[in-house]
Amino acid sequence: MSKESIKRIKNRIYVIIFKSNTRKGKLFDVALLLVILVNLLAVMFDSVEYYHDYYGTVLRIVEWVITGLFIIEYFFRIWVLNRKAKYIFSFYGIVYLLAILPSFIGLFIAGTHLLVVIITLRLLRIFSIFQMNNYTRQGNILIRSLLSSWSKISVFLLSVIAVITVLGTLMYLIEGAENGFSNIPISIYWTIVTITTVGYGDISPVTPMGQIIASITMMLCYAIIAVPTGIITAEALNQNKGNIACPRCRTENEKESNYCKKCGEKIIG
Amino acid sequence: MSKESIKRIKNRIYVIIFKSNTRKGKLFDVALLLVILVNLLAVMFDSVEYYHDYYGTVLRIVEWVITGLFIIEYFFRIWVLNRKAKYIFSFYGIVYLLAILPSFIGLFIAGTHLLVVIITLRLLRIFSIFQMNNYTRQGNILIRSLLSSWSKISVFLLSVIAVITVLGTLMYLIEGAENGFSNIPISIYWTIVTITTVGYGDISPVTPMGQIIASITMMLCYAIIAVPTGIITAEALNQNKGNIACPRCRTENEKESNYCKKCGEKIIG
Amino acid sequence: MSKESIKRIKNRIYVIIFKSNTRKGKLFDVALLLVILVNLLAVMFDSVEYYHDYYGTVLRIVEWVITGLFIIEYFFRIWVLNRKAKYIFSFYGIVYLLAILPSFIGLFIAGTHLLVVIITLRLLRIFSIFQMNNYTRQGNILIRSLLSSWSKISVFLLSVIAVITVLGTLMYLIEGAENGFSNIPISIYWTIVTITTVGYGDISPVTPMGQIIASITMMLCYAIIAVPTGIITAEALNQNKGNIACPRCRTENEKESNYCKKCGEKIIG
Amino acid sequence: MSKESIKRIKNRIYVIIFKSNTRKGKLFDVALLLVILVNLLAVMFDSVEYYHDYYGTVLRIVEWVITGLFIIEYFFRIWVLNRKAKYIFSFYGIVYLLAILPSFIGLFIAGTHLLVVIITLRLLRIFSIFQMNNYTRQGNILIRSLLSSWSKISVFLLSVIAVITVLGTLMYLIEGAENGFSNIPISIYWTIVTITTVGYGDISPVTPMGQIIASITMMLCYAIIAVPTGIITAEALNQNKGNIACPRCRTENEKESNYCKKCGEKIIG
């Protein structure tokens, strides 16, 4: 095969893998997405006893085949690029490599302790697919909203943690171990479950005094829960206007600003 | 009967059925609404064992009578119109026909598997009544709000699903089958129940490590829940101003715009 | 006693009872508030078996004394006014009379079925005290916010009710009576408990299919719950600006407007 | 040691303790923060039976050592200042003293009833560290938001309390003691648990009538929960603009205003 034809093939594969705005590139992305979803489903179903017992072999073959596909894809990715080293050590280069390794190891060593790593890396792969689309911009706005509200939110969280700690200790003293509030950490866990309105009901106040304090807590958090919402909404509105608040001094700056016009703080854009 | 008098009757019925802004048309709409509500209540009560056993015959007669009324109404609807075929195959024409068929079939074949279809179609009929009123405009604003925030919300949902999957897997590894986290899908179900603050309490963390991770999750979702609220509020504010954000580039456009003034994207109005 | 001195006494009592902006009037209001609160607490504690058994007589005497005070106050209210009939048949005149009657009847006839009436009327009395303060204005803004968002909220509620009905029926068919979803009304109750994120856990899905549908429901309501918040926030912002949206056509009108400048609809101010 | 060298040492310690913007001052703050966190963790773990039984001695030694450090730090704080009396009786001076006393007493008298006091004082110490940083400004904005919405929120809370009381009484009459609604206070506790969407499930309606009323309650609170969010968001938006609403008459004032331009009310800045 002539060097010319190899170069042509390389170029064609390059377009398929890296150019997501072409028809073939899109097809490749969709196929990759489906493979990863099948992979994730296989991992999940393997954790269900019934499927593990009856379809365990099938699920393991699926795992094998997909790991194989990932390895082939990874080598093609490297092969078609000129600046190989740079790509291998880039963020997504490492994610792609790591996405292969755990299931590779998992094929030889039994155990479930790698599951979280596998699933996280697979999900990162999914995000890397969407990275190439215009969805990213919306994500950036969201992250920017959260970042520029961060100093407000951190004060809020610190205060909430303080309130939770005091309330947890109070409930521990009032209710005591015989009503499920066995120790302060458990009491704090209960307070968090209550104040976030999750309310499992695995622990709940029994004494009248405990119920009164629980009631006051819930009523208060009724107003408190509105605070972060208000902060982020105000931020989202600014984003819509195209303004961005300075993370340090909260001065509103124009859309394209890189530094705050008042205090010179770098603005994350 | 002369052709003339038939035409007069036809016209009178047409006004009653189709002209909801006349007095008679309104009365017909209200009567129809009541019949459908009685119908829905009959279907619901029939599912309660006590009523099924003691009033089963009455409920079945109600069903018979109402199905009869629907058939009569459907034939009148077709009869008074000139362009019959067009109406029969229109969206509501099909809904009206389908609204009759299932209860018709249900009269001969026993079974509850058609219930969802029946109830959905009956509810669609109710919506078709309100369709004719000025409520629709408000509904449109709501739908427009949701649509124009869709790209933001989809990024948000994707991220939330990723977080839920990772957290679910983590809790499965930490808590394990002996504490109710039998497999990854169940763990993900628990994570969703927790992160949406529903908190049934059918499954809840028991190990200290599980409770710490659950606590962090709940605290985080405290801030996360504010995100969609902020997005939709910002959108609702724009709607109030009469502005509408471009679904692609988020530029604010005037009330009557059909295409974005910046990027030319079609705006859903 | 001269007619003159009676008139002076009358006037003095009038000031105490009706002029809440004087020092004596304020003291009277506070005293009245305390008496009503003691009354409410007495009614509540009487429902607790322990207090009913051991302090029943004390609580009944408190009830007697307070009813006596209310009767005396009512007669003084009437006595000092010139236009007695008008006051007796005004809204608060009737509330004051009704606030006495039930406990009066309750002294002779045993039974708890009047409790809700008693408590509601006592609370209305508390509101009548605050009515005279500048708190009312804030309450009016709130009510105006809710009223002027009403058409939006009603469309929203109608859609939510439709979704709840369909989901309830679906879960009834999927889960069935053996998992607690005994009939459609109970299923709808479960759907409401879930979609409002209350989540008692008295009924919860057991089958995988039911858990999947429950999960989707909860995720959806995550976005849905943001809708009324957004609507009311947008309304509250308009109120702050002093603008008020027309309840019919949503045009923003100036602060003091009584009729919409566009469609002439009466604006509730 | 010459008087000169003592003064130099005094000055050096003064910088370390009080000047948090110097490198040494920052290190001291971080060290103090860590000591308090270790202290808090020791108190919490001591409440867990397992740690109390096996590591009780270690935890008590940690408590001893840290109390010792606090005493030394307190004396240094007083020693280096010129105006000692003023500092001792200042807010944080008293907090620092009180932060030592309870654990000092706790060393001699056994018992857990001082726990809440200890933890609250320790948390106040943590806040006093952050007091010196620019976080305070954000906290002030939050507090200002809440304060200037207070009159709106208080009307809202009063109405909610009234609704809760009436609903609680109603549910007590409908469900009765045999379904867990033993008395009115317990019923009100259940109503609060429901209306705040916590939903423990320790008490839940059983009768059809009770479930219908519970459903309506939850649906209503769906809209109600949006009210405080809307109020605080509107306030937060004003804060962002730099405007601040007058706590009395709600007129918007410029950023640096100390008194309302309309009614002259003092503005909390």
Give the topology string of chain A: H per helix, E per strand.
HHHHHHHHHHHEE
Instruction: Assign the CATH topology of the largest domain in chain A.
Output: Four Helix Bundle (Hemerythrin (Met), subunit A)
**Main interface by residue count:** A-B, 53 and 51 residues
Strand count, sense and barrel status of the largest sheet of chain A are:
2 strands, antiparallel
Mean of the pLDDT scores of chain A? Answer: 79
Instruction: State the share of residues found in helices of chain A, binned by percent.
Output: over 70%
DSSP helical segment count of chain A = 11
The strand count of chain A comes to: 2
- In percent terms, what proportion of residues of chain A is strand? under 5%
Give the N-to-C terminal Cα separation of chain A.
49 Å
